[in-house]
Design brief:
With about 450 residues, the protein is α+β, with helices and mostly antiparallel strands. It contains 18 helices and 14 strands. The chain has helices at about 5-20, 105-115, 150-170, 180-185, 215-220, 240-250, 255-275, 285-300, 305-310, 320-335, 340-345, 350-360, 365-390, 395-400, 405-415, 420-430, 435-445, 445-455, and strands at about 30-40, 40-50, 65-70, 70-75, 85-95, 125-130, 135-145, 175, 190, 195, 200, 205, 230, 335-340. The strands form three sheets. Strands 1, 2, 3, 4, 5, 6, 7, 8, 9 and 12 form a ten-stranded antiparallel sheet that branches. A hairpin with a 4-residue loop joins strand 10 and strand 11 (about 200). Helix 3 packs across helix 5, helix 7 runs antiparallel to helix 8 (about 285-300) and helix 8 packs antiparallel against helix 9. The longest helix is centred in the last third of the chain and has 23 residues, at about 365-390. The chain is flat.
Length: about 450
């Protein structure tokens, strides 16, 4: 018998499905997959993007686990990466690896930091408690699979930021991101409001943010514009005169140090692939994109594609020529991109040893380096002072003219405990007779934050 609560769950599930999967472009047709796991056997069902709401009509059994793909597959094709059609969502799967912890409490703590904290990632759209962990969804306007390298870059950026958060917050330390599952573009994720048979709990979900993101905008904001500058004012577009392209893309020979850095990155990418025997199927687009970024700055544009082809041919599964054309075409539209080291290292899952090797730079000018070190130390001391004064990371970054990520890194390196400091300052102001709203205004923080730390 269907209860009132069941009807409410069904309605909530339909709302989630409509939001995450129901805004596909009418001129295109593709399918989402739903998987039903029963006794170790997986039954797969296809749902066309035009009839996606029918998923909620399934008679869900509490003896089965139900999963759904985050992205769409070409019609009449199997659930394989090569059959990917459209990009719709990024889903990060996070597990709790300590059964003694209360999963609901840990999940709520994570949600608090993601919504109220200073995380340098877009606000997630849907938060799902799976019974053994959480799944975080970011929803995009339907995007062509040709921009997969952007999707992968944003995914890796979010994973890196979440890992930093988990490592920095003690109450989240037992959470672990399932990176392979999160990076699987045609993988399955638990369908909201269905039962997790291993814990006999329902996967609750809620929409935290109803804004639909644009993948290109997110890539530009978080993987591009934050730490990238475009050095050319007149960006070359496809179809312009070839001689103009040659002139625009000629590297500046006076920027010796920068060209040296680009060559270092090019060699580093090549070594990255060698270390993995060129088995980089899940990262090929992104690797080739970074490689192309390097090539256009150290050689004439006429030689970029031949070099890309030569490098691509060494992959165990080379990219198609159309993919190479897309990457170079994007570069031609955007102009030369200058990535900071932090951004370059955030794109790919480099090992600790590889990161360390890349960041080991030989010093050439002792006097210059001492001056830089002093300047950096003064900046770091200023960051800590401003944090003690109650400034937010965004305010500090703006005042000392650095990125939010740098501020967080400095505070983390110096074991700066913001919650303890906030509690101390709030309690001090309460003892002075200030109201919670006056304290929020004085410290320039949210009223809920003041409420939280005034009760500790």
């Amino acid at each position: 018998m269907t209860t009132q609560k069941d009807l409410e769950y069904n309605q909530n599930q339909l709302e989630i499905i409509r939001f995450l999967l129901g805004d596909c472009l009418e001129e295109y047709s593709s399918s989402f997959f739903v998987g039903c796991l029963n006794g170790g056997n997986m039954k797969e069902m296809k749902y066309n993007t035009s009839n996606i709401e029918k998923i909620s009509d399934l008679k869900f059994s509490t003896r089965c686990d139900y999963y759904i793909t985050a992205n769409s597959i070409k019609n009449n094709c199997q659930r394989q990466k090569k059959e990917l059609f459209g990009l719709h969502n990024i889903c990060i799967d996070i597990d709790l690896h300590n059964s003694k912890d209360n999963i609901n409490k840990v999940a709520e703590n994570l949600k608090y930091f993601l919504v109220e904290g200073d995380c340098s990632i877009p606000l997630l759209n849907v938060f799902v408690k799976t019974g053994r962990g959480v799944q975080l969804w970011w929803h995009f306007e339907e995007t062509s699979s040709k921009l997969l390298f952007m999707y992968q870059a944003v995914t890796q950026f979010i994973i890196n930021q979440l890992n930093d958060l988990i490592q920095a917050v003690e109450t989240l330390s037992n959470l672990k991101i399932d990176v392979p599952a999160s990076q699987n573009i045609v993988g399955y994720f638990r369908l909201p409001f269905t039962t997790n048979t291993k814990t006999s709990t329902l996967a609750f979900a809620e929409i935290l943010n109803s804004d639909t993101y644009n993948l290109v905008d997110v890539f530009n904001d978080y993987c591009d514009n934050e730490n990238v500058t475009i050095s050319l004012q007149n960006v070359q577009h496809v179809g312009q005169n070839k001689n103009v392209a040659t002139r625009l893309w000629k590297p500046q020979s006076t920027a010796v140090e920068y060209i040296s850095l680009i060559m270092k990155r090019k060699q580093f990418i090549e070594q990255y692939c060698i270390n993995r025997n060129y088995r980089v199927t899940g990262s090929r687009d992104l690797i080739m994109f970074l490689y192309c970024v390097c090539l256009v700055q150290v050689m004439n544009i006429d030689f970029v594609m031949p070099s890309m082809k030569k490098f691509n041919a060494q992959f165990t599964e080379p990219l198609e020529q159309s993919k190479l054309d897309e990457i170079l075409g994007y570069m031609q539209r955007k102009g030369i991109l200058k990535f900071r080291n932090e951004t370059f290292l955030s794109f790919l899952p480099f090992s600790v040893e590889e990161r360390s090797r890349y960041l080991t730079v030989k010093e050439h000018n002792g006097t210059r380096d001492i001056k830089r070190k002093i300047t950096k130390e003064e900046r770091n001391q200023n960051i800590i002072k401003l944090a003690i004064d109650g400034k937010t990371t965004e305010q500090i970054a703006q005042e000392v003219n650095c990125s939010v990520r740098t501020v967080k890194s400095v505070l983390k390196f110096n074991n700066f405990n913001r919650p303890d400091l906030l509690k101390s300052k709030i309690m001090e102001l309460i003892s002075q007779g200030l109201s919670l709203r006056q304290i929020a205004c004085k410290l320039n923080i949210s009223y809920p934050t003041v409420q939280k730390y005034s009760k500790i």
